Structure prediction request, 678 residues.
Amino acid sequence: MTSSTHISVKDIGVHFTLGRSLIGKAPVLRAVDGVSLDIPKGCFFGLVGESGSGKTTLGRAMLKAVPITKGHIKYDDGDVQYDIATIGKDELKDYRKRAQLIFQDPYAALSPRMTVRDIIAEPLQVMGITKTREETDNRVREIAAKCRLNLEHLRRFPHAFSGGQRQRISIARALVCEPKFIVADESVAALDVSIQADILNLLKQLQQDMNITFLFISHDLSVVAHTCDHVAVMYLGRLVETAPTRSLFTAPRHPYTKALLSAIPSLDPDDAGKAQRLSGEIPSPANPPDGCRFHTRCPHAREKCKVDVPKWRQMGDEHFVSCHFAEELAAEPAPIAVG
Amino acid sequence: MTKPLMSVRDLTIQFRTDEGIITTVDEISFDIAPGEVLGLVGESGSGKSVSAKALMRLNAGNAIYGEKSSIILNLDDGPVDVLALRREKDMQVVRGGAISMIFQEPMASFAPAISIGDQMVEQLLIHTNMNKKEAREHSIDMLARVGISEPSKRIDQYAFEFSGGMRQRAMIAMALSTSPKLLIADEPTTALDVTIQAQVIELMKELVDEYGMGILFITHDLGVIAQTADRVAVMYLGNVIETGSVRDVIREPSHPYTKGLLNAIPHLHDLERPLTPVPGDIPSPLERPPGCVFHTRCAYAIPGKCDRDVPSPNTMSPGHTSACFVAKEVRNNEAEAVA
Prediction:
């Protein structure tokens, strides 16, 4: 990846206040707490973590869909440069054309009362991109063909379509205004496996054809391994590791990444037992543990981990990790044979 | 040979709807032995949940069971013909008595306004001879058994006070507290994070060893099946298209659909391998294809044969059958070898 940085996140924080308290301060939930990362232009960037890790919130922050408490997000697609955290109203309107979101559940994301044509055309009309109906129709037809939807499908309503087809409609709607940056939030999680591969291949194809930068949010490491160029792993609002995909999967450095990898059920029935099981569950982000946030579940945790927050440091080419004992753990064999 | 615990023969299930009679399950047969885990795999719409619900007679009132269909549950005091049960009171034996069920979404399965303990005690009072005090003690034991800490405190809490993984553990504790002979697990790990899924799978394996009940494990995740089941039945559009031991089916898939499913999922040990989707979408049950139900999406389909004749199961090896005209060819085709 030699190209320039498209999105640069610097020490971003998204905090939500929980309820109100008469005396003292109300408790604060730090959904995203001091995350920094760079997404290169044209990259298929994966973001993984368990539920409650803050990955969706981080994705939405990049779209300015949640209030950003602190930090900066620099956006630079070559034409314009914005700081998303402090973006103004008019600029935000323009940014909406450049950054789009694909949702998880294609059954909930499409209005049952609109035809497929109207669903795909809506962003064009709302954002005033096209002037005439003819122009709109042309754009809709063009993107529908790219997303492998038949022209006759455009007149129908969403209920007539299967999950995979609906997801292709959602993708067409997100891409119709020719955005430069897409956040795909668990976009294949609700689909059957036989369809999932089809949608992943389509996203890859579109990314190359239209030169889009993707943030692909998923809890499924095996899907991320197959589609993404670069992966960031999140835990309780913080990044624990980022690396190029191959490096992350062949030589994971953080115990959490290792545990996630070994938790994937193997297709080989005789390949059980050697997996390293994580005990317990992700703590509440409203009350995260001190020191390294992972220490309560970490099989390698020592006294130091309970007190000191581990530094974010480089451990190889574009490979970053935040663990006190990453060097020691690197000597251990990888949890699974990845090739 | 000992009698199987559950014996299903030629089970056909149709639903009477406004759009006509829909066939969701078409003459399927399978056995479950005591202490055996049978995995039922298939995409949405394949009829796997409907089949499982039939075992407990939980399908809606518009369900029609085929005339030749039989479901026999062999208990210590004689066989029960499940489909012949007429009165609600008689059905108690298959609804929570000898058969228990674990559902996919544990939040939706517990009543929100009744404490976990009261729900566990209630079913014990119905299905066993325990009195209230014994039932409560037994429930606390069961919660401890599935790894819930402080069970005597937890038992008085409500479902919303439990985390996702804990709710599923409580669900399992509740299902097993009546010592059922057969446990139906309908996608019990799908809604959970991978790390929690690994814990729940481990727990279920231990409990099978300890209690020796049969399990019908429904999932769409072949990895989960590989790690839990002894035998597997692959369903497509209401038909069992391949069945056999887990090792045989995953290592030597002999039906084009099984092979397609294995090719569509990401394999971690070979990241370069392209994901091959199963072409097309699963047809609507209103338009069941004639002949082999899979021929519309099958690369091996022979025109004039597969779209006309229904294939009967071919024995590939003892206990391993594939309902395909070219099963041997499919199995031996190394060009698209899997796993």
The CA atoms of residues 105 and 333 of chain B lie 39 Å apart. The two ends of chain B are 33 Å apart (CA to CA). Chain B touches chain A through 45 residues (CB under 8 Å).
